[in-house]
């Protein structure tokens, strides 16, 4: 069994390392508020054990840690392709980071720099591992929020993962037992393929396609390692997660 691949954690009951990787371009901007309301806030509530409050704080390294990676457009020079927030144990602070994202540029581009975002996320998980040496294995989740397929170009900014393509990176995510999820306002086959390639080797994927738990029929929401309220499509399939876990709403929207 790959560490961390045992299935969704129970809300607020385990120590988790959670990284949101978000496309910070104009392609996603118009849809972000809806995605935030229906999927991102419920995901944060799931790991926090309830709605974020200003008094929430899990300590320096003992509780769940949240980190945010925002990747930009190819024409963002002289700015970096990626902005990264240092981890916080405050779910409330994490939500303020989401609310502060500026979605700019890239409106005419058909692809996005997902490889840059995921390479930075893997670097963060490496850092989490060093931070967590005293408490051991944690439940690790990487959530990609975007509205574009990836460029075929490899990552260039990450020192550790430079040269890795998006497919290389999601395969490494799966091999390390990191649960990979995708939230998109569109049903993009290229993103679904990334989700499938990120399956941990020890996790026997069912033959049927993974269940989409989106609240809006235009959206695509594929999750591992967390529970979100079941959307209409999942409810038609009995409200079950693709790995057999019931998708009963933890915190109804």
Briefly, what is this?
The protein is of the alpha/beta class and 253 residues long.
Task: Write down the CATH class.
Answer: Alpha Beta
CATH architecture: 3-Layer(aba) Sandwich
* Principal-axes shape call: globular
Order of neighbouring strands in the sheet with most strands: 3-2-1-4-5-6
CATH superfamily: von Willebrand factor, type A domain
Region (Disordered): 232-253
Organism: Pongo abelii
Protein name: Mediator of RNA polymerase II transcription subunit 25
InterPro entries: Mediator_Med25_VWA, vWFA_dom_sf
SSE inventory with pairings:
Blueprint: E1 16-23, H1 29-48, E2 65-71, E3 82-84, H2 91-99, H3 114-131, E4 139-145, H4 166-175, E5 179-184, H5 189-197, E6 220-222, H6 232-236
Parallel strand pairs: 1-2, 1-4, 4-5
Antiparallel strand pairs: 2-3, 5-6
Helix pairs in contact: 3-4
């Amino acid at each position: 069994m790959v560490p961390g691949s045992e299935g969704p954690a129970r809300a607020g009951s385990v120590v988790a390392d959670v990284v949101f990787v978000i496309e910070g371009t104009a392609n996603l901007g118009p849809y972000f508020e809806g995605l935030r309301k229906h999927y991102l806030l419920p995901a944060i509530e799931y790991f926090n054990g309830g709605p974020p409050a200003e008094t929430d704080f899990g300590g320096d390294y003992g509780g769940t840690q949240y980190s945010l990676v925002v990747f930009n457009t190819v024409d963002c020079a002289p700015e970096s392709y990626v902005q990264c927030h240092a981890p916080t144990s405050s779910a409330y602070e994490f939500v303020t980071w989401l609310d502060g994202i500026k979605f700019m540029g890239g409106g005419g581009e058909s692809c996005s720099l997902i490889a840059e975002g995921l390479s930075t996320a893997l670097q963060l998980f490496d850092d989490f591992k060093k931070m967590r040496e005293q408490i051991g294995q944690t439940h690790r989740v990487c959530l990609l929020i975007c509205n574009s397929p990836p460029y075929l170009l490899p990552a260039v900014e990450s020192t550790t993962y430079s040269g890795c393509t998006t497919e290389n990176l999601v395969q490494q995510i799966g091999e390390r037992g990191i649960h990979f999820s995708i939230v998109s306002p569109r049903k993009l086959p290229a993103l679904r393929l990334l989700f499938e390639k990120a399956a941990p080797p020890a996790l026997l994927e069912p033959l049927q396609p993974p269940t989409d738990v989106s609240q809006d029929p235009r959206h695509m929401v594929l999750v591992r390692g967390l529970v979100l309220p079941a959307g209409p499509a999942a409810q038609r399939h009995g409200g079950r997660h693709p790995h057999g876990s019931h998708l009963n709403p933890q915190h109804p929207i």
